[in-house]
From TrEMBL:
<comment type="similarity">
    <text>Belongs to the outer membrane factor (OMF) (TC 1.B.17) family.</text>
</comment>
<dbReference type="GO" id="GO:0015562">
    <property type="term" value="F:efflux transmembrane transporter activity"/>
</dbReference>
<keyword id="KW-0472">Membrane</keyword>
<keyword id="KW-0564">Palmitate</keyword>
<keyword id="KW-1134">Transmembrane beta strand</keyword>
<dbReference type="Pfam" id="PF02321">
    <property type="entry name" value="OEP"/>
</dbReference>
<dbReference type="InterPro" id="IPR003423">
    <property type="entry name" value="OMP_efflux"/>
</dbReference>
<protein>
    <submittedName>
        <fullName>Efflux transporter, outer membrane factor (OMF) lipoprotein, NodT family</fullName>
    </submittedName>
</protein>
<dbReference type="GO" id="GO:0005886">
    <property type="term" value="C:plasma membrane"/>
</dbReference>
<keyword id="KW-0449">Lipoprotein</keyword>
<keyword id="KW-0812">Transmembrane</keyword>
<dbReference type="InterPro" id="IPR010131">
    <property type="entry name" value="MdtP/NodT-like"/>
</dbReference>
Amino acid sequence: MARNKILIYTGILYISLLYTACSVPGVVQKKEDKTVPASYISSQDTTNTAKIKWKEFFTDPYLNALIDTALMNNQELNITLQEIQIARNEIRARKGEYLPFVGIRGGAGVDKVGRYTNIGASEATTDIKPGRETPDPLPNYYLGAYATWEVDVWGKLHNAKKAAVSRYLSSVEGKNFMVTNLIAEIANSYYELLALDNQLAIIKTNIEIQSNALEIVKLQKEATRVTELAVRRFEAQVLNTRSLQFNIQQSIIETENRINFLVGRYPRPIQRNSQSFDTLVPGTIYGGIPSQLLENRPDIKQAEFDLMAAKLNVKVAKANFYPSLGISAGVGFESFDPTYLVKTPQSLLYSVAGDLMAPLVNRNAIKATYYSANAKQIQAVYNYQRTVLNAYIEVVNQLSKISNLEKSYDLKEKEVQALTQSITISNNLFKSARADYMEVLLTQRDALESRFELIETKKQQMNAMVNVYQALGGGWN
């Protein structure tokens, strides 16, 4: 008889498993493509600048001190570190779900049943000896332990934990990507500050030159060699240059405060060596090969871990279609009198039960979760491929920019030299009345603009060096 019952239950279980296994809806999944071009510029040299630590890549001690401070005090970075802690706690929560839950329970109560209820009537008709009647009302005391456990037959809980691990690793890579961006932003702002300092120095020099020229024009007007128009034009140029001075001073304050914000402190002067800006030379950059981006770029690794988590979530959602097996057990003592509570075996009780549950009808919610998990997995594939493509394009753009800026800087430097010489020539010709005052004004203006452009090109060179280091995935290690 018992054997027949076992066979019947086994048959029911088999049929339910067969039904649920065959009724899982199909979905179209997408596989990520990890192939990248073989090289950036037809070079197979695997030497990669991204492997250099940022303290070795940047040699300015003032800049390195700023980066060090930012890595400790930047608020956004510290917020991200707490996100990592949250992701780590999620792993602990998912791990606990596939382990047995064990607890203790105690309680006390009193129960008074009515005379005309089924229990009250049965007690009244029972032949109970005098002095041994059931207490009325009936107290009850309980003390015991209990345990519940969902048997992870289909790996749903283990896959959920693995997905949590992947999300944790993704958050770590997200922090690394933020570190890379933070270092690059501080370095770019620092070089911008040096460029502004040098532009301010040029303006002050030009104001002195133009003021001297204005005095000469005033003397020539007194000698009736020029008109009042020439004096006014020279004076207007001096005023225009002075207004530029205040604009640059404001830009310096804003750039300093941007750096102060990044390093997590209130506004204060930024220590720097502005005189070294002219002698800065971008270091040699080695791009390596594109496949190294998959290991060096934190955002690519972050997208990869997100993809792994999304794939595991599909498995978790799929397991919801299958039966789940739960086991519960309890052991303890129960008595209507506290003095009998720990008296064994009379007050001892225990229980063991198993539950098998499988979804059969109205599984729309489970299907929706499954379809959504698969759609998110496809999203994660596209996001991964987009991240890889974006990283490759960033590196190609910055490598090309470094090459073109180097050529541009050489030409700008020659232009500045030619225009600087033309200022002296135009002034001498003007003094000897062999050149018009407009030629002097235009020459001074062109020389000022060319010097500004030379400094701007130098700044762009340094920014390109920082940006390609960032694009290659350097800085976080």
